[in-house]
Amino acid sequence: MATIGEQASIYTEQHRMTYYECDRTGRATLATLINIAILASQDQSDALGLTTEFVQSHGVGWVVTQYSMAITRMPRLNETVTLAVRGSAYNPYFAFREFWIRDAEGQELAYITSIWVTMSQTTRKIVKIDPALVTPYHSEAVKRIPRLPRPLSFETTDETLSKPYQVRFFDIDPNRHVNNAHYFDWLLDTLPADFLLAHDLQQVDVRYENEVKYGHTVTAAANILPTAEDGSVTTSHQIRVGDEKCCDVTIKWQSTTID
Amino acid sequence: MATIGEQASIYTEQHRMTYYECDRTGRATLATLINIAILASQDQSDALGLTTEFVQSHGVGWVVTQYSMAITRMPRLNETVTLAVRGSAYNPYFAFREFWIRDAEGQELAYITSIWVTMSQTTRKIVKIDPALVTPYHSEAVKRIPRLPRPLSFETTDETLSKPYQVRFFDIDPNRHVNNAHYFDWLLDTLPADFLLAHDLQQVDVRYENEVKYGHTVTAAANILPTAEDGSVTTSHQIRVGDEKCCDVTIKWQSTTID
């Protein structure tokens, strides 16, 4: 990935982590990490005239299909971080966007890659990307975009942890879809509090399959896999509505460095 | 209330409303309104050396018991608002704090009054307010603090709307308590989406009784009262854990001015 997207414009902004964006340990939540990354990309899009209205006037909307997040350290309460984003590359059907979150000294806290598609507002099917929606980012037109890691195939066992979550009115954001950052609150809340307090996020791979809608009750299921030799732990997650798979997520954790 | 607290220091800061703080109509959520108000008061406290650690070193923590909010207009997506707060007055057991949220032209969007107590960390009982915790705000020592409106006494009827909500790990904030702004997501989510889309908040009166804890499943119940002659609607709400009342809320709404 070193060379792809080097010509793309990078947009940066600062963000201060508020108490309501952090968990009880004072670390930003995973939902917050995605929220602030997407905030920066929306601000870049708006600055380039690629507003939601402009995209909709082309009969489509952007939908994320995959995230891959490498987390060095979660932002902390009251820390001001720098968000950077670029629309790195695209091919006829997929766009590749990268995000960096850095501390005040420029140290990388998280690096997020993502794959996006344009979906027709009328047919709800994926359509070819209109170059008018990506060229202002100075996105590179490529034949192949990078492949992101695929989450583990989720397998339900006797030890699978599972909880139901009702999708709430306030889970819908101004784009009129369920903000999929909320998925992370559901996914992680399924894990025991003791586990969440004892581990730091290291790597998160997400693949979205079907949209969750207001009024749905989703099932968030999780498996905690055996601890690896290096002490890291992997958890495997799935969100379903009935029998329909909405997203698969694999997370790698390490023992926490925060007390 | 005109004269009380005039000597108290006012702290102000700006806040830009992000998409993840707004609902599908592009209005800030009620939870967000409280979150940003409290953010300003925490920043004032920190600036005056009245940090959470300092308060805890006196063996207590601040707990809000009542809010009364008069809302002219909810902040909107991408709007930068000015938050102002002052610790206006206190008597031996109660402190009175006021918040103002204003638009870029200085027009008032919301005015929030609140009553706070200090609770012993060991006995969990309300204790006399230590003047060291309030004098830096230039709070006025008074005999009586203003009384805030009491929410309607909640009555369950055949038409009462009700939903269960599990308290999640990420509902706990860095102060290690359930952020009670989440109560508003539960309370309002109980109302039909059609109602929420058709009405604007005008007045919200809240009284907290008992703390909600991680792992609890709360019941949020709501009554929509008959429409008044002026077209306003009042809703009455309660949050319970089992038979224990956690908070009562009364909300006055008007027909929405947003499409």
From TrEMBL, chains A, B:
Residues 156-254 form the Acyl-ACP thioesterase-like C-terminal domain. It comes from Lactiplantibacillus mudanjiangensis. InterPro entries: Acyl-ACP_TE_C, Acyl-ACP_thioesterase_NHD, FATA/B, HotDog_dom_sf. It holds the Pfam family Acyl-ACP_TE_C. Keywords: Fatty acid biosynthesis, Fatty acid metabolism, Hydrolase, Lipid biosynthesis, Lipid metabolism, Transit peptide. One of its GO terms (molecular function) is fatty acyl-[ACP] hydrolase activity. This is Acyl-ACP thioesterase [Lactobacillus sp.]. Belongs to the acyl-ACP thioesterase family. The keyword Transit peptide applies. It comes from the Bacteria. CDD domains: 4HBT (cd00586). The keyword Lipid biosynthesis applies. Residues 10-137 form the Acyl-ACP thioesterase N-terminal hotdog domain.
